[in-house]
TrEMBL record:
Main localization category: cytoplasm
SUBUNIT field: Part of the SCF (SKP1-CUL1-F-box) E3 ubiquitin-protein ligase complex SCF(FBXO9) composed of CUL1, SKP1, RBX1 and FBXO9. Interacts with TTI1 and TELO2; when TTI1 and TELO2 are phosphorylated by CK2.
Domain of life where this protein originates: Eukaryota
Compartments where found: Cytoplasm
Family annotation (SMART domains): FBOX
Pathway in which the depicted protein is active: Protein modification; protein ubiquitination
Pfam families in alphabetical order: F-box-like
Domain F-box, first and last residues per copy: 4-51
InterPro entries: F-box-like_dom_sf (IPR036047), F-box_dom (IPR001810)
Record protein name field: F-box only protein
Role summary: Substrate recognition component of a SCF (SKP1-CUL1-F-box protein) E3 ubiquitin-protein ligase complex which mediates the ubiquitination and subsequent proteasomal degradation of target proteins and plays a role in several biological processes such as cell cycle, cell proliferation, or maintenance of chromosome stability. Ubiquitinates mTORC1-bound TTI1 and TELO2 when they are phosphorylated by CK2 following growth factor deprivation, leading to their degradation. In contrast, does not mediate ubiquitination of TTI1 and TELO2 when they are part of the mTORC2 complex.
Organism: Pipistrellus nathusii (Nathusius' pipistrelle)
Record's keyword terms, sorted: Cytoplasm, Ubl conjugation pathway
């Protein structure tokens, strides 16, 4: 047995269990290791579902709409992961006390729809130290 191809000798259930323990970044990196890992990871929706459900905690409407539209868990994650990370930062108040648009780092600007910006605005207005503009 070639040590470089040990993965081919593992039962599929074991390989999926191992891959199922990985975070999103590690799962993506593992999929770039070789063709067989790529095929196994890309084509197994059960590996992507738990990560998608974590994204759903922040982007419920978007994930639910994508599921209704028939997207795979992997595609839903690709469509919503960056948005969920950015939305979570806004909702957690990370950018609450920035005084001017010039102070916003360009990296945080991510295209979001009006409903998402509405959710962020509501969260800002509920913050204890929010100052009303007179």
């Amino acid at each position: 047995m070639n040590q470089n191809n040990f993965f081919k000798w593992l039962p599929q259930e074991i390989a999926l269990h191992i891959f199922g323990e990985l975070d999103v970044q590690s799962l993506c990196r593992a999929s770039m290791t070789c063709v067989s890992w790529f095929d196994t990871i890309r084509n197994n929706d059960s590996l992507w579902k738990p990560h998608c459900l974590a994204v759903r905690a922040v982007c419920k409407r978007e994930v639910d709409d994508d599921r209704k539209s028939g997207y795979s868990w992997r595609d839903i994650l690709l469509r919503n992961y960056k948005k969920s990370q950015m939305k979570l930062r806004w909702l957690s108040g990370r950018y609450s006390y920035i005084c001017s648009p010039i102070s916003l780092p360009e990296s945080i600007m991510y295209p979001m729809d009006a409903e998402t910006w509405g959710e962020i605005l509501e969260a800002e207005l509920k913050r204890p130290n929010h100052k009303q503009i007179s």
